[in-house]
Every structure is written in C-alpha cells, then in structure tokens.
Design brief:
With 136 residues, the protein is an alpha+beta fold. It contains 2 helices and 3 strands. α1 (30-45) packs across α2 (89-108). It is elongated, with a radius of gyration of 23 Å. It starts with 29 loop residues before the first helix and ends in a 12-residue tail after the last strand. The relative contact order is 0.18. The model has no long low-confidence stretch (mean pLDDT 84).
C-alpha cells in the first residue's frame, strides 16, 4: 500500500501550483444574470404602485476582450419596468441603470456595457387627475 500524500495533485504538483489556464471555468446562465438584474432594479426603484408588475430583465451574455487582451463575459441587459405617474422618469431610469450595472458587476463578475430600460406602463397615482377623469 502506498502512502497518500496530502496536498499533492494528480500530476504530482502541489495543489496550489495548478496554472490558471488548467483550473477550468465557471459559466453563469443568462437567466441567473437576468434574476440578479431584476432584483437590482427592484432595489433601485423602491416602492412601486400596488398594481405594478415587478421589474424583469432579458440578458444576452457574450465574451468580450478587455484592454489587456483577456476574454471576459459581458452582459447586455434590458430591464422592463412599470412606474407611477407623475414621476421623474429620466432620474429613475438612470438610477436603475447604475444599480443594475453595479450589482451585476459585483455579484456575477461580468462587464455590463449596456443597460437598456424599457417602460412598459405608467400607473396614475391615486388622486392625480381622478376627479376630472382625464390625464394630460
């Protein structure tokens, strides 16, 4: 019976000495990135009107080269939102874009070159224009 050498890998090298190119890779599914993006959009928006649907996202992940010629995954994200009205739509969209890019970068480790925000519906705030039955 041969003694078992702890800390020595299959190739006879110490376990910590495996070159990075031989360690393998981690692939994160697009739907996982989409869930992270949707949660980040929820965080950025705060409270939504009661009848509004929760934000959801579509993601396309591709490999991109960085300035140091490394290949790294990049996620193009489209977030779909419903907002209350009246509101500062531009400011809320900027907040969503910023938060989604930060959170996906931090949690998933991908570059986020593009976050497109699509407003699906505006919900009229109670008491605004309801008495006159019209919206401007």
């Amino acid at each position: 019976m041969t003694p078992v050498n702890e800390g020595i890998g299959e190739l006879g090298r110490p376990l910590g000495a495996v070159p990075p190119g031989e360690r393998g890779a981690t692939r994160i599914a697009d739907r996982v990135v989409a869930k992270v993006a949707a949660q980040a959009a929820r965080e950025a928006l705060g409270a939504l009107p009661p009848q509004a649907a929760a934000p959801h996202a579509n993601v396309v992940v591709r490999q991109a080269r960085t300035s140091t010629d490394e290949e790294r995954d990049a996620a193009k994200i489209r977030v779909h939102l419903e907002l209350d009205y009246p509101t500062d739509i531009g400011a809320r969209c900027r907040a969503v874009r910023r938060r989604v890019a930060e959170r996906v970068g931090a949690l998933v480790g991908m570059d986020v070159p593009e976050v497109a925000v699509q407003i699906e519906r505006l919900h009229l705030a109670p008491g605004h224009g309801v008495a006159k039955r019209r919206t401007r």
